[in-house]
Amino acid sequence: MLSSLSITDAHRKLKKKEISAEELVQSCIDRIEKIDSSINAVVFRNFDSALKEAKKIDSSGIFDHPLTGIPYLTKDNFCEAGVPTTACSRILQDPVYIPPFDCTTTKRLKNVGAISIGKSNTDEFTMGSSTETSCFGPTSTPWDTTRVAGGSSGGSAAGVASDECLFGLGTDTGSSIRLPASFCGCTGLKVTYGRTSRYGVMSMASSLDTIGPLAKNVEDIAIILRTIAGHDPYDATTGNIPVPDYPKHLTGVIKGMKIGLPREYFIDGLHTDIEQATKDAAKTFEKLGATIIDISLPHTEYALPTYYIICPSEVSSNMARYDGVRFGHSIKTPKHLIDYYERVRSEGFGDEIKRRIIIGTYLLSAGYFEAYYRKAQKVRTLITNDFDEAFKTVDVIIAPTSPNPPFGIGAHQNDPVAMYLEDILLTPQNLAGIPAISIPSGFSKKNLPIGLQIMGPHWEEGRMLNAGYAFQQATDWHTRKPPL
Amino acid sequence: MTKLTLDQVRHLAALARLTLTGDEEKRFLQELTDILKYVEKLQDVNTEGVEPTSQMNQLQNIYRPDVIEQQHIKPDDILSCSPLPIIEHQIQTPSAHG
């Protein structure tokens, strides 16, 4: 099956004309048509346009860029010109929102000939950890379809893991690439804040949002990152900092690398299989010549409450734009403008969005702002200082991605705080703005995938990716395929 | 520290331009109380003398010339996304006065 190829392998075959871009795209389409009804990863199929694009590329016959002719899935909050884009929310349907422009990331991919084949499922406006708040219904992990794919980029993660595409795009505000990568058994990168442009990607919490790739291995991630990273005048938070040739960083040599193992990430309730997999991973790194150093990140336990102040505060502000005036859902016969806003928003938003808007409105109110938001921004400084201090002695940090393997669909339905706790090891990196990658590091006794997180200092994706690459050269967890 | 009331939930919803059903109000009161209780943990942290984070990737102020670009997209393309009537390149909203 061609859709199971890595980008590197597919590129080699395309270049040698052993396969065509059309065959590769068709293979992804066949796979989606065959298995997507059991995982629900794809919410819009853009197959005709993808095939047309593939034929055009085949007729030019030029495959100089490693992403030329490579099919991918885009999370449903990335605007693509002419393609329905709804963030899996009712508020951008009826009439459906069709953006008249491309976001910078898909534009950069289009410029090198990568082929977008459809939109992937997400929690509504990316708010969730399981892809269950999507108005299209939940995405399952391909390893056990009664369990969630993780979220919010669950569609891209499940799509990559089940070979519906060669790579996927996601966003990570407080877990949303790494958690689903871990739950589905693929590789997912959260970049340094500002490394990739967010122009044209629907915002959730602007001081935390990042966009990044999910793929079958670290090598592929490096190729995508080199293509999509870099300064964009349309997103002022992107640094005008040169983009390294990430694939060249992948030497696989990590002899002498100092790797920190933070004791605070081995929390009470950490699943024993995950604890074991993390310790085994540390041993693998030692065998490769790295030194494992016990470190402390003392404010880790405060990261999640800090996140759940900052995130909803920023959400309440960002969601104000959905008012039924410029795009999306509309209602008939409003009494007046305020009535129109209220009915559009109340019909259009799901529960999790409403919860976060109301909490955020509360947290930012006069009288509460100092006690909550300002306090959280101070604790955020302490969390960042922890990482700065740690990176004085270690090159990268490793930890479990999630304390638990994928949970059952509906398990946290009536308990938002329990859902929030799934992100307990994943919000410190967003608060500090550092990069982190989740890579497959084993399986639980129930054959559910386990993820290992590797974190690096700001702008040091290259170093972090090389650690992940060395690990994947020494292990085969990332090559295991789900039983679908 | 703080206990939310049903009236506060209604007031916050109104500020955020949301209308909640009676069931939603009750459910949200409980859920929002749980969330606030969870985040109150932060009050344990001593933050005396700590600067609040305002930026985390070392970038300084970014400036650019204020130039109007219409190369890739025209105002009418953007207006055509509106579900409301377009009159003379403007969106006609429901009356603000009822």
Number of strands of chain A: 13
Instruction: Please write the CATH class name of chain A.
Output: Alpha Beta
The largest sheet of chain B, given as strand count, sense and whether it forms a barrel, is: 2 strands, antiparallel
Order of helices and strands of chain A: HHEHEHEEEHEHEEHHEHEHHHHEHHEEH
| Terminal residue distance of chain A | 13 Å
Can you give the mean pLDDT of chain B?
Answer: 91
End-to-end C-alpha gap of chain B: 40 Å
Shape designation of chain A: globular
The amount of helix of chain A comes to 25-40%
Mean pLDDT of chain A: 97
Structure description:
The complex is a heterodimer of chains A (484) and B (98). By secondary structure, chain A is of the alpha/beta class. Chain A has one domain (2-298, 383-479): Alpha-Beta Complex (Amidase signature (AS) enzymes). Helices cover 38% and strands 14% of the residues of chain A. Chain A has helices at residues 7-15, 21-39, 47-60, 104-111, 154-161, 178-184, 218-228, 246-249, 272-287, 303-318, 337-348, 351-363, 370-390, 416-421, 428-432, 461-474; strands at residues 42-45, 71-75, 115-120, 140-141, 144-148, 167-172, 187-190, 210-215, 258-262, 291-295, 396-400, 436-443, 449-455. Chain A has an eleven-stranded mixed sheet with strand order 1-3-2-6-8-7-12-13-11-9-10, sandwiched between helices. In chain A, strand 2 (71-75), helix 4 and strand 3 form a beta-alpha-beta unit. The mean pLDDT of chain A is 97. Chain B has 98 residues and is mainly alpha-helical. Chain B has a domain at 6-44: Histone, subunit A, CATH 1.10.20. Helix content of chain B is 34%, strand content 4%. Chain B is built from three helices and two strands; from the N terminus they run αααββ. Chain B has a two-stranded antiparallel ribbon. The longest helix of chain B has 18 residues, at 22-39. The radius of gyration of chain B is 23 Å and the shape is flat. The mean pLDDT of chain B is 91. The chains are: A alpha/beta (484), B mainly alpha (98). At the A-B interface, helix 10, helix 11, helix 12, helix 13 and helix 14 of A face helix 1 and helix 2 of B.
